[in-house]
Amino acid sequence: MIHEKISKGNYVIAIGAAAFDEYYTTDTWPQEGGKTMVEYKEDMIGGMIPNAACVFAGYGIETYLVDTLKSNSRKTEMIVEDLKAHGLHTELIRYRDDIPDARTIIILTGRERTILVVEPHKPMLDIKDSELDLFRNASYLYTTPVELKNIRNYMEFLDDMKAHQVKLAFDIEESTVDTCDRSLIYRADVLFFNEFGFRKIKGNRSETETLSEMFEKGVEIATITLGEKGSFTATKDGSFRTAALKQDVVDTTGAGDTFNSSFITYLLMGKSIKEAALFANTAGGYSVTQYGPKGGVNELSFIENLVTKLDQSYGRETRWDRKF
C-alpha cells in the first residue's frame, strides 16, 4: 500500500523490465548468417534493472520496482513472487492483458555471454498522482534513458524529480547512445557505462573532452566498468582507476548491475566515491563467480568482509589517472 504522504527517505525506485531469462550454452558464437548448436540449460528470473534492484534490497536498501507485466500469466506470478522473495516492493508494478510475457535469451560461450532481449512492446508508463509523493521522496531513481523515455511526459517528470532533489542514476549501454539524445543522458547525476557504451558516446573525441562535456551539463559522477581491468571513475575534480582481481569466471550476467547498485549503496551510506568504487568492484567481481543473473545479491557485511580480506591479501588500491 502506498502512503498518502511520505517523508524524504533513504530508498531507491528502480524503473525497468523484469523478464524470464532463458539460458543456453554453445562452444562458439556464429558469424552473421552462420549456424551453431546450443544446449538449453534452464530458465531464471532476471532483467537488468530488477537484478540491480535485488542487489540494493540484499544490502538492506528499501527498493521499489516499476514495470508493466502481462496480467493473468503464470510467468508474471513467478516473477513477482521472486521479486518479493528478494525483498522488493512491488506495489508500483502495472499489469496489462495486451502485452507478451517478458523474455530474454542468454547464450553462454566460455567466459562471456550474449544477451538477446525480446522486444516487449510495453505501453507508455503513466505516473499516478497518488504515486508522486513516493517518487519525489526517493533518494535515487535508478533506470536507463530508454526506460525513462517510456514515461509519459518524461521531461516534465524528470524536471519534477530534480525539483525535489531526487538523484538520477542511469545505466548506459552502447545501444542506449544510439536511441537517446545526450541532452537526456546528461540529466543524470550518476552515469554508469561499460567500455563499449563510453566509447560510443565518446566517438572521435578524447576522454577528457567527453567527460568535461558531461560535467558541464551537471553530471556529478561517471564510471566505466572495464571487466577484468577494473573500473575508471571520474568527477569534475579528477578521476581514478580501481583495479580488479582475477576471478574464476562462471557467469558474467548481472556483474554490471551488481557494480552499479553497490556503488550507489555506498553513496547512500555516506561513503566516499573512492570507497564506493572499491566496494562496487569487489561486489561485481564476486558476482561473476556465481551462476545466474542474481549472483551479486549478497548481504552488505559479506562484501565488506571480502573487501577487507582481498585488500589484506593483494594490497589493492585505487590510483589517480585521467585515462582509462
TrEMBL record:
<dbReference type="GO" id="GO:0016301">
    <property type="term" value="F:kinase activity"/>
</dbReference>
<keyword id="KW-0418">Kinase</keyword>
<feature type="domain" description="Carbohydrate kinase PfkB">
    <location>
        <begin position="13"/>
        <end position="294"/>
    </location>
</feature>
<keyword id="KW-0808">Transferase</keyword>
<dbReference type="InterPro" id="IPR029056">
    <property type="entry name" value="Ribokinase-like"/>
</dbReference>
<dbReference type="InterPro" id="IPR011611">
    <property type="entry name" value="PfkB_dom"/>
</dbReference>
<protein>
    <recommendedName>
        <fullName>Carbohydrate kinase PfkB domain-containing protein</fullName>
    </recommendedName>
</protein>
<dbReference type="Pfam" id="PF00294">
    <property type="entry name" value="PfkB"/>
</dbReference>
